[in-house]
Design a protein that fits this description.
Elements lengths: L14 E12 L6 E12 L3 E5 L6 H8 L7 E6 L2 E2 L5 H11 E5 L10 H10 L6 H11 L15 H13 L5 E5 L7 H16 L4 E5 L2 H4 L4 E6 L2 E4 L4
Parallel strand pairs: 3-8, 3-9, 6-7, 7-8
Antiparallel strand pairs: 1-2, 1-4, 4-5, 9-10
Helix pairs in contact: 3-4, 3-5, 4-5, 5-6
């Protein structure tokens, strides 16, 4: 089933993501690549969506567009009602820093800093008060109250990913975007991370999960599949 375009005039009061006929094209002539090809998608507040596909399917390019790390070649992208498809880099950076919480496969923690200092980092860009307490609260949400002073090399891979999730949470983002969050973890740590993401969704957080693994995608409420740059809803077995 191909993902249907968003109907004109639809209720968008709780809409976080709205893509309409979005494409991302690289190169030209014989070297043209349609990494994302005429994709339409809607994600509402509180949704848990998984975007699944193999390497080369276009899911990473779509993730970059959703995370305001890249812009479409054509089409419309609205994030929480704002048209971000035509924003400049400064405006895109503001969306990334304040309204999207990122969780990456590689954790991206600073080795010289403690867990709470790593979690505090996004708050430095907004001159937030009570930064330490906000970081400690976020770490408590992911079950790391006893590890706040530990540096990354003193933590397991699963604990490092939980620090990364806490960092994504600390700014109270509109959406959490998780790119292959279990890709570097063993099966036990993967289950723990997915349980945390599921719990966050149940508490009201909007989550978009990018993965190649159908078992990981299975924790989401809705799964869409990417293939050759196109998107379709996954048909239940």
């Amino acid at each position: 089933m191909v993902a249907a375009p968003v109907a004109p005039g639809a209720d968008v009061t709780a809409e976080i993501i709205r893509l309409v006929d979005v494409s991302r094209v690289y190169g030209s002539g014989d070297a043209t690549v349609h990494a994302v090809d005429n994709v339409s998608l809607a994600v509402n507040e509180g949704d848990f969506l998984a975007v699944m596909g193999p390497s080369g399917s276009g899911k990473s390019t779509l993730m970059h567009i959703l995370g305001c790390l890249d812009v479409p070649t054509s089409g419309e992208y609205r994030f929480a009602g704002e048209d971000v498809s035509r924003m400049n880099e400064r405006e895109l950076a503001s969306i990334r820093n304040r309204r999207i919480g990122f969780v990456f496969q590689q954790f991206h923690l600073l080795s010289s800093m403690s867990a709470w200092r790593n979690v505090e980092l996004p708050l430095l860009y907004r001159a937030a008060r009570d930064r330490k307490q906000m970081a400690l609260n976020a770490l408590a949400q992911v079950g790391l109250t006893g590890r706040v002073q530990h540096r990354p090399n003193q933590l397991s891979g699963g604990q490092q990913q939980r620090v990364a999730i806490a960092r994504a949470l600390v700014t109270d983002p509109t959406m959490i975007l998780a790119d292959e969050p279990t890709g570097n973890l063993d099966s036990r740590a993967s289950r723990e991370v997915l349980e945390i993401l599921t719990g966050l969704n149940k508490s009201g957080h909007t989550i978009v999960l990018i993965t190649h693994d159908p078992n990981v995608a299975g924790v989401a409420e809705r799964v869409v599949e990417m293939a050759d740059g196109r998107l379709r809803d996954r048909v239940a077995a």
